[in-house]
Design goal:
The structure holds two protein chains of two kinds. By secondary structure, chain A is mainly α. Helices cover 65% and strands 1% of the residues of chain A. Chain A has a single domain, classed as Cytochrome c oxidase-like, subunit I domain (Cytochrome C Oxidase, Chain A). Chain B folds into two domains: 179 residues, Cupredoxins -  blue copper proteins (Immunoglobulin-like); 122 residues, Cytochrome c-like domain (Cytochrome Bc1 Complex, Chain D, domain 2). Helix content of chain B is 34%, strand content 18%. The chains are: A mainly alpha, B alpha+beta. At the A-B interface, helix 3, helix 6, helix 9, helix 10 and helix 11 of A face helix 1, helix 2, strand 7 and strand 9 of B. The structure holds protoporphyrin IX containing FE (HEM) and copper (II) ion (2 copies).
Chain lengths: 557, 338
């Protein structure tokens, strides 16, 4: 259904409006900041992927023969730290949240454009610290930084990496505050809470977590650095500290952080499934509130990472109870997406393929979360490859599938070019197949007891590990393809000038130019209909009134 | 050499129960997973845009009854699974009676195991089939985790605190032992074997490994390096503790009628309900004894004064285990629990 009408002379848009380097580096335009993030996190994704490739190469055979133990440990640490803090946490919020939020609610920009630009600089400063720490010999603490290993035993630039994570955390808080205020204060007239696209609801829930949770992990990690540097006993028992305290503080953020990674992807999937089924999302209120439920209950389940640690047994039981509860909103969302497809008009374009892939993989990840939520099975499975498989199904199968769906869906809007559909479909297929080949065997390995973060392993697990490594090359290829063809399409892709190439609903499609004007809307639009109003195909969701109404927000640069 | 297992061996009573739970949850997961996976694909094919032969009338976009159904049915299943799993969790972690106890000390990068009769093993743990076993764990440096997949149990070895787990090995055999909490460079080499012997063979093994000739002083010295072979002690764990007790001069005050200071009666410490000077009430367990030795000031028994020197840094984890066994034995607690 891709469409293409090239109309010769170019209109002014946010890309061609100014083209100097300074106009990018000092831009206050949320759309340009989104692009800055897109470029930077794509590079980090490739770096993190490279480290993963090295890890899988080592694990292709049982003996630890390719790398030394130390290098291996540094590789999986680099992989985890880069992927989580430099890619997954910023991914959808910083790129698509930034780009779309103002467009979707009919605003000219986010509430605090300068804070928005600052968040990118702070993020890049943090990323620089982390990368320097890795280049100057690396760190081998894993992304979890468990004490007292990280605070009293690990060598290397652990403190520098922690400062880096601290900084990226603040960038994430800035983004969260910005989005919360934007959603509260800058909705166009008529854009009531229950007319918001579900992506906006998801971003709202995500921002809440970012603002409430991130300070905790930032301070906790800083305390690790303090203990390392000044030998003040906080977490190390030989200095009078408590190592379990670290785990409580760390997971108090890092469990909710997994929802920072998945909620935005869920928002994307709601948008994509609706747009490609040409139907209003089934059970809008339930999908919207399940995001909030996840964000709130998600703050109360951190102890499920600590069932074996020695926290009180009764605490474990309460955490398990709440963990089973928090799985329910995810189930609700999934069923509602299925019901959205029901009686729809389904178009099998690349974004929809990723959305279907998301549903399949996220469901497997979520359901294996149940094995881990259950206390007794968790004891057996924790810290094995079962956990590794579980969280890759939700984070790579879920969050990254959502990210790729978003990338393809909004690519024409962002760039004014269409990606090549055939290549898009092929890559989606490769990602899906490669992903399952890589991570499914890890469930079996985990149930057999293969510990995570092992540099070598017993002979009898060779076949499954080899399969996993083979799968990872297919997966790697699947990720490389979009990098290539999307870059290619910037120059050679079919030009899109139409506002709404997918025939979707939403202000960003119906009222915003492709690519958007620097000021988004000619005038503040007035919203007259609910989101996803596919029942009235001829009438737009909102309109731009002729007389000059309120102008929201200032803008320059 | 066709060695390609897909499931682990199951060699403990608790492990059998946990396996059943595992496969039940797996079945639920497969049922729901299939419904969503095949369901979504089926719907997306059936309602493809080019298919005009399907009925799209009455396509409602909300229905409270359906929402309630797919909220409440999973919720009920979830609650049942939660309760079942919690019960099995209590079986392996909640205190139980009538056990055979082994002390395990984790350190970078080896496991050191001590039996009540004084037998010691490194990176090996020999156990009797058919008896309830309690493993008490502690670490000397960073956090490790003691994992025996064939028994479906594991527990973290945390520096500064004792953690315990219980299980009943059933099948004689040799099983994997792993460290599953990342602990630095040689984490992947912190592995070993668990050997389960029939009761009579186990008794023979104990006899063979208990009577060594090494002096107690050697045991009381620091723990061996990773390469050191397991040595049999001369004495039971409690007797070794007695030696340490004397070697460290505890008997200058404790169990000494001529003590220069007023000291609590150590024969009553284990299992006692202890009132502290600050009003708190604690139980006389491993954690209390350990803290009383390393950092006596932290908890002072009511009626006594903070006159005991702290032994932090002067006693090894191994000696602490021995001292605790000794103080336990003073209270008449047998090695097989109370
Ligand atoms: C749908 C409901 C989910 C449930 C019931 C669930 C449950 C769990 C539990 C109990 C653990 C602890 C495992 C252990 O270490 O013993 C865990 C680990 C993990 N989960 Fe989930 N999970 C769910 C969804 C997610 C989602 C959506 C994500 C991320 C997008 C996620 C990411 C992770 C990560 C990263 C870990 C491992 C952290 C680590 O130890 O490195 N989970 N999950
Ligand atoms: Cu969690
Ligand atoms: Cu370890």
């Amino acid at each position: 259904m891709a469409t293409t009408t090239y109309t010769g002379g170019q209109k002014q848009n946010y890309l061609n409006w100014k083209t100097t380097l300074a106009s990018w580096l000092f831009t206050l335009d949320h759309k340009r900041i989104a692009i800055l993030y897109l470029v930077s996190i794509s590079i980090f994704f490739l770096l993190g992927g490279l480290a993963a490739g090295v890890v899988r190469a080592e694990l292709a055979t049982p003996k630890g023969d390719l790398l030394t133990s130390d290098v291996y440990n540094k590789m999986f640490s680099a992989h985890g730290i880069i992927m989580i803090f430099l890619f997954l946490i910023p991914s959808i919020p910083a790129v698509f949240g930034n780009f779309l939020l103002p467009l979707m609610i009919g605003a000219r920009d986010v509430a605090f454009p300068r804070l928005n630009l600052l968040s990118w600089y702070v993020f890049m400063a943090g990323a620089a610290c982390i990368l320097i720490a890795i280049l100057r010999g690396g760190i081998d603490t894993g992304w979890t930084f468990y004490t007292p290993y990280s605070s009293s035993f690990a060598k290397g630039e652990v403190s520098l990496a922690i400062v880096g994570i601290f900084l990226t955390g603040f960038s994430s808080i800035f983004t969260g505050i910005n989005f919360l205020v934007t959603i509260h204060k800058m909705r166009a007239p008529g854009m009531t809470w229950f007319r918001l696209p579900l992506f906006v609801w998801a971003m709202y829930a995500t921002s809440l977590i970012q603002v409430l949770g991130t300070p905790v992990v930032a301070i906790t990690l800083l305390l690790v650095a303090v203990e390392r540097t000044f030998r003040i006993g906080i977490f190390d028992p030989s200095l009078g500290g408590d190592p379990i305290l670290f785990q409580h503080l760390f997971w108090f953020y890092s469990h909710p952080a997994v929802y920072i990674m998945i909620l935005p992807a869920m928002g994307v999937i709601s948008e994509v499934i609706s747009a490609f089924s040409k139907r209003r999302v089934f059970g809008y209120h339930f999908v919207a509130f399940s995001s909030l439920a996840i964000a709130i209950i998600g703050f109360l389940v951190w102890g499920h990472h600590m069932y074996t640690s020695g926290q009180s047994m009764y605490a474990g039981i309460v955490f398990s109870f709440l963990t089973w509860i928090v799985a329910i909103p995810s189930a609700i969302k999934t069923f509602n997406w299925m019901a959205t497809i029901w009686k729809g008009r389904v178009h099998w374009d690349t974004p929809m393929l990723y959305a279907l892939g998301f549903m399949g993989l996220f469901v497997i990840g979520g359901l294996t979360g149940l094995h881990l939520a259950a206390l007794a099975t968790n004891v057996h499975l924790t810290d094995t490859y079962f956990v590794v498989a579980h969280f890759h199904y939700v984070m790579v199968g879920g969050a990254i599938m959502g990210y790729l769906a978003a990338l393809h869906f909004w690519w024409p809007k962002m760039t004014g070019r269409m990606y090549p559909e055939g290549w898009g479909k092929l890559a989606a297929l490769l990602v899906f197949v490669g992903f399952n080949l890589t991570f499914f065997p890890q469930f079996l390995l985990g149930y057999m007891g293969m510990p995570r973060r092992y540099h070598s392993y017993p002979e009898e697990w060779a076949v499954l590990n080899l399969l996993s490594t083979a799968g990872s090359t297919v997966l790697g290829l699947g990720y490389l393809l979009p990098v290539i063809y999307l870059t290619w399409s910037l120059k050679y892709g079919t030009v899109v000038t139409e506002r709404n190439p997918w025939g979707a609903r939403g202000l960003e499609w119906e009222l915003v130019d492709t690519p958007p004007d620097p000021h988004n809307f000619e005038r503040t639009p007035i919203v007259t209909r609910p989101a996803y109003d596919y029942n009235h195909p001829e009438e737009p969701t909102g309109f731009v009134p002729k007389p000059r109404p309120v102008v929201v927000g200032g803008k320059d640069g | 050499m066709w060695n390609f297992p897909l499931v682990p061996p199951t060699a403990s009573k608790e492990g059998e129960a946990i396996s059943l739970l595992y496969w039940t949850i797996t079945t639920i997961a497969i049922v729901f997973g299939t419904i969503v996976l095949l369901g979504a694909i089926y719907l997306a094919v059936r309602y493809r845009a080019s298919n005009n032969a399907v009925d799209r009338s009455n396509a409602t976009d909300s229905d409270l009854r359906i929402e309630l159904a797919w909220t409440l049915i999973p919720l009920v299943i979830a609650m049942v699974m939660f309760g079942w799993a919690a019960k099995l969790y209590a079986d392996i972690y909640a205190p139980r009676e009538g056990y055979y106890e082994v002390f395990v000390i984790g350190k970078q990068w080896m496991w050191h195991c001590q039996h009540p009769n004084g037998a010691r093993e490194n990176n090996m743990l020999t156990l009797p089939a058919g008896r309830l076993v309690k493993v008490s764990l502690i670490s000397q440096d960073v956090i490790h985790a003691f994992s025996i997949p064939a028994f479906r149990v594991k527990r973290d070895a945390v520096p500064g605190r004792y953690n315990a787990m219980y299980f009943t090995p059933t099948k004689p055999g040799v099983y994997h032992l792993f460290c599953t909490e990342y602990c630095g460079t040689k984490h992947a080499e912190m592995i070993g074997k668990v050997v389960v012997l029939p009761e009579n063979e186990f008794q023979k093994w104990l006899e063979k490994n208990a009577p060594g000739a090494t002096a107690a002083a050697a045991t009381a010295a620091t723990t061996g390096s990773a390469a050191a072979p397991a040595t049999g002690g001369t004495l039971t764990l409690a007797q070794q503790g007695e030696q340490v007790f004397k070697a460290l001069g505890c008997n200058a005050c404790h169990l000494n009628p001529n003590s220069p200071v007023k000291v609590p009666d150590l024969t009553k410490t284990w299992g006692d309900t202890i009132k502290l000077t600050d009003g708190r009430v604690v139980k006389g367990d491993e954690a209390y004894i350990r803290e009383s030795i390393l950092n006596p000031a932290a908890k002072i028994r009511e009626g006594y004064q903070n006159l005991m020197p702290p032994y932090q840094g002067q006693v090894s984890e191994e000696q602490l285990v021995q001292l605790i066994a000794y103080i336990k034995s003073l209270a008449g607690a047998s090695n097989g629990g109370k």
